[in-house]
Specification:
Layout (H helix, E strand, L loop, with lengths): L3 H33 L2 H18 L6 H7 L4 H34 L3 H9 L2 H4 L1 H12 L3 H24 L4 H22 L10 H35 L2 H34 L5 H28 L1 H9 L7 H15 L4 H7 L4 H21 L3 H28 L3 H28 L5 H23 L1 H16 L1
């Protein structure tokens, strides 16, 4: 049997391959669409999607994660989750129709009402494939999961771009999202031909809810955290500011936050298999934490240092107001990322209530800081996120040390390679980007990227050779499997 830590990183490798390909498609699509549509268009659609995103995080009541954690009677549990997802989907579809007029009035944008009603159909589409995706995650079949993940994004990209070119404006984004949901369901059912029935097993539902209720509470709080700044910006600063923030946030989300989101998708099911072996859980947590930071640190620093050429190349000159935001948001995301995967250990050992408590603390800190920060426009919002990240992370790391049994020195050793390499990267690329400021943005990006990558990985090779070799071998082993 593959060692638990190695098995976890294998799963992460395939999940990250799916992420890299998928987000590459998203970045290309974004680069095209930001030249076809103005910031106001993205802002209006974001007002609608922020509500859909909030409800989507709650749609399966945490039962998908409970199914992944389940070790027996999987078929009965899958049938129960399948039935529950359909019932909740219909309820959320109806709820969205009911609140759409009020949402349009709150945001002072009439078009939001119709957009919400159209996007509500995703709640009755997604349940057809959500359990299939959860079963693929449970079995660590991330190579197969790549097909629906990538396929739905390719369909969305083609549909959205074609409609934008034909002048559909904001509706190109809405229709593209519906096409993504339909194609994702079809591909998930093709790749995993698993027969499911709409049948509740009362005993199974009770066991699943015992795990999922606190997890659902965490999802509720996490959804509030994830969408709070969009609501505040949309209400206080208007659609144009929200459009700029939305696209900037999406870039950072794609390149930084999704690293640990992808990790969670692979780490939780892997850890669930060793939930009664604390020493293996601790070792797996430290191993994955180390390699996540090896990815996140250079990406974060790269975005901060090359923010201006990135905006000019990826988005175009009408998005220059995004530059200072792109320099600040990665700081918050980098702080949040440290040790974040401990949450998957809490879930794996059956203590999701810890996630809920941490989420409530996060909300209590975020709301007052955000309301203060928005008075200073988008820069103030970004600074409020940095302050929130710093305060929440202090508490989070204290909990990690106590619950998982990881010592501070062990955590520091896991973080050392990334931060040593990151320091070298910053020393080299910061003066470089300013010295070639008169060159084209493409040249600046190419030079900074090449110099930064060479410096970062060169430093790791010289000072942390074992980490590089171990990581490379693990990825190669995962690809062969």
């Amino acid at each position: 049997m593959i060692h638990a830590g190695k098995k976890t990183v294998h799963a992460v490798a395939w999940n990250y391959a799916s992420f890299a390909l998928s987000k590459g498609v998203v970045l290309i699509t974004m680069a095209v669409l930001t030249r076809l549509l103005p910031p106001e268009t993205f802002g209006i659609v974001s007002l609608a999607t922020v509500i859909i995103s909030y409800l989507s995080l709650l749609q399966d009541l945490g039962l998908g994660s409970a199914l992944i954690q389940q070790r027996s009677n999987v078929q009965e549990a899958a049938n129960t989750v399948y039935a529950a997802n359909f019932i909740v989907g219909i309820l959320f579809f109806s709820l969205t129709f009911a609140i759409a007029p009020a949402a349009a009035i709150f945001f002072r944008v009439p078009a939001v009402e119709t957009m919400l009603k159209v996007l509500a159909f995703t709640f009755v589409i997604d349940p057809f494939g959500s359990v299939h995706i959860a079963l693929l995650q449970r079995d660590l079949a991330f190579r197969k999961k790549l097909v629906p993940d990538l396929g739905r994004l390719l369909v969305k990209a083609v549909v959205t771009i074609v409609l934008a070119v034909k002048g559909f404006g904001a509706w190109s984004l809405i229709i593209g999202q519906l096409a993504s949901s339909v194609s994702g369901v079809i591909l998930a059912r093709i790749i995993l031909r698993h027969k499911l029935r709409l049948r509740f097993e009362k005993a199974q539902l009770g066991r699943l809810l015992k795990f999922s209720v606190p997890f659902m509470g965490f999802n509720l709080v996490n959804a509030l955290i994830s969408n709070m700044e969009f609501v505040v910006i949309g209400r206080a600063l208007g659609e144009a500011a929200l459009g700029i923030y939305t696209i900037t946030y999406r870039i950072v989300d794609l390149l930084i936050m999704n690293v640990w989101v992808v990790l969670a998708g692979a780490m939780f099911p892997a850890l669930a298999t060793i939930q009664h072996q604390p020493h293996l859980l601790r070792r797996a947590f430290l191993s994955v934490t180390q390699y996540v930071q090896v990815f996140i640190v250079p990406i974060s620093l790269g975005l901060i240092i090359t923010a201006e050429p990135i905006v000019r190349v990826l988005l175009g000159t009408q998005w220059l107001e995004a530059i200072p935001i792109l320099r600040l948001l990665p700081v918050a995301f980098l702080i949040f990322s440290i040790g974040t995967t401990a949450g998957d250990v809490y879930k794996a050992i059956g203590r999701p209530a810890l996630l809920l408590k941490m989420g409530l603390l996060h909300v209590a800190i975020l709301i007052p800081l955000l309301l203060l920060g928005v008075q200073y426009k988008l820069v103030g919002v970004a600074l409020s996120l940095i302050a929130t990240a710093f305060l929440v992370k202090i508490v989070h790391l204290v909990v990690v040390v106590r619950v998982i049994g990881v010592t501070v020195s062990e955590l520091m050793r896991a973080l050392r390679p990334a931060f040593v390499g990151g320091t070298a990267l910053t020393i080299v690329t910061t003066p470089l980007i300013y010295s070639i400021g008169d060159q084209s943005p493409v040249v600046q990006l190419a030079a900074a990227g090449a110099a930064g990558a060479a410096t970062y990985f060169g430093t790791l090779w010289l000072l942390e050779k074992e980490v590089v070799i171990k990581g490379a071998n693990t990825i190669l082993d995962a690809v062969r499997r």
